[in-house]
Prior knowledge:
By secondary structure, the protein is of the alpha+beta class. The protein is built from five helices and 17 strands. It has helices at residues 21-34, 40-52, 63-70, 92-96, 201-205, and strands spanning 3-10, 13-20, 80-81, 99-100, 116-123, 130-132, 135-137, 155-161, 168-170, 175-183, 208-215, 220-226, 234-235, 245-246, 251-255, 259-265, 277-278. It has an eight-stranded antiparallel β-sheet with strand order 14-10-11-12-16-8-5-17, with no helix packed on it.
Amino acid sequence: MQTISISTKSDAHFTVFKVPQWRAVLYQFLSVQIWGNLPSVLQRKLSAWYSTIYTKSYSKKIIAPYIKINYRDKNYLKNFKPPNGKKEFENFQDFFTREFRKLPENTSTYVWPCEGLLCDMNRISNTSSSKIKGERRHIETIFKVDNATIPKDYFFTNVFLHNKNYHRIHAPISGTISRIQHVPGDLIILRPWIYKEDPSLPALRNERYNIDIVDLEGRTWYISIVGGPAVGTIALPEKLKVGARVEKLEEIGLFYLGSTCCMAAPIAPRHHRMHSFVEVGATY
C-alpha cells in the first residue's frame, strides 16, 4: 500500500503519520472537487453552523478525552489558561483558543509565530505558480502584493495548524505594523497531504488577513493568517493597528478552528526542515 508520510509532533515526541494513498485521493475528491466547488457563501454558512457546536456547554466534555488521545503529557493543559479572563474552560472552543499561562522565552531575534507542521518552505524565487479558477497565481498572491514587491531572496514558509495545535499567532520579530489587510475568499480544506504537489494552494484561495511588520533593520516580514472550513472568525487584537509597535511574541491573531499561517521573511529558517514541527517562540 502506498502511503504519504508526514512528520509532526505531539508534546516532546516526534511521530510520523501514514496516510494511505486511497484515503488521500478520496479525501482530495471530497474536499477539493465537492467542497471546494461550493459557492463561498455556502461554505461560510455551513462552516458557521458547524463551529457553533463547539461553543455549546456540552462540548466541554470533549476536552478530557481529546487531550488523552492527542497528547502524551496528560498535564498538558496546565501550561494554558482559559481565554478572555475566564475561570475555567466552558466549552471546546475555549480549549481551542487557550492562552499560554507564560509565553515561551527565547533570546533569539527571530522566532516562529505559530505552532504546527512546516508543510511548505522555499526561496520566493523558486516557488511555483498555480492555476486556480482559470487564473495563474504566484505564491506572492497569498500576501496580496505585486509580483515585484517581495524580494526574490526572501524565504516562504507555510505552517499548517492541526486542530490539536495552539491557535494563536504571535509576532516573529519586534517591529512596526505597516499593513493590515483582509482578503475575502473561499474556505477550502487545509490538510496539506491532500495537495502533495502544491501544499500552499488553499492559502492562494482562502479568506485571510495579511499583516506586514517592519523589523528594526527596516526589512518587511509578510505574514498571512489563512482561514479554512469551520473557521468562524479570525480575530485580531484591538490594539493591532497600522503604525503600532509590536514586540517579539506579542499576540497578533487568533483562529477559531482550523488554520494555516504563511510567512515571507528576509532570512531562511535555520533549525527546521520541510515536514518538521515548529513551535511558537522557537528559534526561526
